[in-house]
Amino acid sequence: MKDFRYHVVSLTAVFLALAIGVVLGSGPMRTALVGEQDERIATLEEDLAAADDEIAGQRDEALAGEQYADETAAGLLPGALEGTSVAVISVGEPAEADVAALGERLVQSGAAVAGQVTLGEAWTDPAQAAFRNSLASTLAPNLVGVDTDAAPNIVLGHALAQALMPGAGPAADDDGDAGERAGLLLELLTESEMISGSVTGDVTGVVMAAGTGADDVEDRTTASVAYADVAGVLADYAQGVAVASGVDHEGDVPSAVRNSPTASALVTTVVTGLDYYGRITTPLALAQNIAGEVATYGPGDGRSMLP
């Protein structure tokens, strides 16, 4: 009898569930539920269509802006750097496409790109500090016009400068073979993996293309200070130096340049100078720096978009 009552209860529960399902699936209840769902779907479809329209509008606006920038560049850039031989030095891993596009704007401005150099991880890696000290001690006696007691990063900056710009800056009055020294320094810096890239001729101007760098703010800031020191040293040799970066980041290279007593007096910075529109500003900023004016460019307070 107990088992029979158990089965009766179970069957009753099944029929009750079926009855509830029939009620919910038909009649006014079904209409209310389905109607509400249809309204939600219709609202989502409208929102999606509006978002698609907005994206299409922004895409058209961006294309129009790029066309405007291209036509503006054609009027602003040609001749701005005529006769200038530029080395593009990449630090902090900027996007290769951005560096290549910047090179095209430099060529459009009349410059010859005589060097494409990347500072390697060994330049700023804390774990390789002892190696940098040893390398700087080895190179210092072979440099001209450099204090052998200077900080390793400064010595290495002079080594890079004398490799790229033989007979310029502190080495201008050297009676030795500046060209031979430049080749030796370039070889040593490359073999030690401090730098990579190629140099096809003597350099008169420098653009430092700065990527975002390390994710950790402290590591990024430390590396940026080292790069700013190098930019300041290069400015002792080059006719002009400009640092071009992406958007603002805490501890980025332009900030380090502005905070450096040495580099801030010599080096021009262009925030967003690697972006589509900023790549027009960078050659003009370098030309202005060559003419003797140091400035900061880009969006934001205290900056202007164009020289």
What does this protein look like?
With about 300 residues, this protein is α/β, with parallel strands linked by helices. It folds into two domains: about 1-75; about 80-295, no CATH class. The protein has helices at about 1-25, 25-75, 95-110, 130-140, 150-165, 180-190, 215-235, 255-260, 280-290; strands at about 85-90, 110-120, 195-200, 205-210, 240-245, 270, 295. It has a seven-stranded mixed β-sheet, sandwiched between helices. The chain is elongated. The model has no long low-confidence stretch (mean pLDDT about 90).
Fold topology:
Layout: H1 2-25, H2 27-76, E1 85-91, H3 96-108, E2 112-119, H4 129-139, H5 152-164, H6 178-191, E3 195-199, E4 205-210, H7 217-234, E5 240-245, H8 253-259, E6 268-270, H9 278-290, E7 296-297
Parallel strand pairs: 1-2, 1-4, 4-5, 5-6, 6-7
Antiparallel strand pairs: 2-3
Helix pairs in contact: 3-9, 4-5, 5-6, 5-7, 7-8
Features:
307 residues, alpha/beta, 2 domains, seven-stranded mixed β-sheet
How would you sum up this structure in a few lines?
The chain has 307 residues and is an alpha/beta fold.
Tally of helical segments: 9
Largest sheet: 7 strands, mixed
The largest sheet has its strands arranged as 3-2-1-4-5-6-7
- Overall shape: it is elongated
Mean pLDDT: 88
Q: Can you write the helix and strand succession as a string?
A: HHEHEHHHEEHEHEHE
Helical residue percent band: 40-55%
Strand content: 5-15%
Integer count of domains: 2
- Computed over alpha carbons, the radius of gyration is 31 Å
Poorly predicted parts: none
Strand elements, count = 7
Alpha carbon gap, first and last residue: 99 Å
- Which secondary-structure class do the elements indicate? alpha/beta
